[in-house]
């Protein structure tokens, strides 16, 4: 397994873990980054059988990331989703108007 392939697999595994724990925003980020790395790996593969399997797996991850995006959109519409904004300690200029 190449370095890029290992990184892609690790990100996609993390995305699935986050997805299962319903941390959809983080999962979506991991899906997107993992898929980007994974598709780069797929392009570099010369073995046709392996390439076909990887493309199928990439398609599955892409479908799931689209479903996660839909879940997030529905939660935002229903008012159930609240985005967390991290404010550093001792920072200034963070009023409700600027958030």
- Total helical elements: 3
* Average pLDDT figure: 86
Order of helices and strands: HHH
Rounded to the nearest angstrom, the radius of gyration is 17 Å
The shape is elongated
What is the subunit organization of this protein? single chain
Low-confidence runs: none
Structural class: mainly alpha
| Fraction of residues in β-strands | under 5%
Cα(first) to Cα(last) distance is: 44 Å
Major sheet summary line: none
Annotation, overall tally of beta strands = 0
Percent helix, as a range, is over 70%
Question: What is this structure's SSE topology?
Answer:
Elements: H1 3-20, H2 24-44, H3 48-78
Helix pairs in contact: 1-2, 2-3
What this model shows, in words?
The chain is mostly helical and 99 residues long. The chain has three helices and no strands. Helix 1 runs antiparallel to helix 2. The radius of gyration is 17 Å and the shape is elongated.
Keywords:
99 residues, mainly alpha, 3 helices
What is this structure, in a nutshell?
The protein is mostly helical and 99 residues long. The chain has helices at residues 3-20, 24-44, 48-78. It is built from three helices and no strands.
